[in-house]
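Objective 1b of the project was to move from sequence-level analysis to a structural picture of ligand recognition. The entry below was assembled by the postdoctoral researcher (A.K.) and checked by the PI before modelling. It contains the amino acid sequence of the target and the SMILES of the bound compound, zinc ion.
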Amino acid sequence: MSSAVPYQADDLPATSPVTFLFRPRDGGGVEATGECPVCRCVTTRAWDAVQYVAKGRRIGKKAGLFPDGEPEFAMCLCATWHVDRPAEVREGCGASFWIAPPPPGSSL
Ligand SMILES: [Zn+2]
Ligand SMILES: [Zn+2]
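Corresponding predicted holo structure:
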C-alpha cells in the first residue's frame, strides 16, 4: 500500500482532536483506532495499563486511563508507505495529532 501524501515530520499537532474508536486490548490496556487526520490512513494508538502499574506509577488504574478527560497526543503509525520517509522511520506519515478521550462512563 502506498499513499500520495509525502512524509512530513510534524511535532506540533495543529488540528483539533480527532475521534478514534476505543477498545480494550487483550492482556490489558486500551487501544484507539481511527483515521490519521493528515494522511487519512488507519492508525492505532495503544496505552498499556499493565505496564504503568508494574512500574509503580499509579497512573489512574482506578480512575481509568484518561482521568482528566484531556485529548491524548498521538503520532501517526499507519502501515502505508509515504514518499520521502527516512529509512529509520518504519511507520506513519510523520504527523502528530490529538485523540479525543473516550466518553465519560465508558467501561475502559
Ligand atoms: Zn498519517
Ligand atoms: Zn499514512
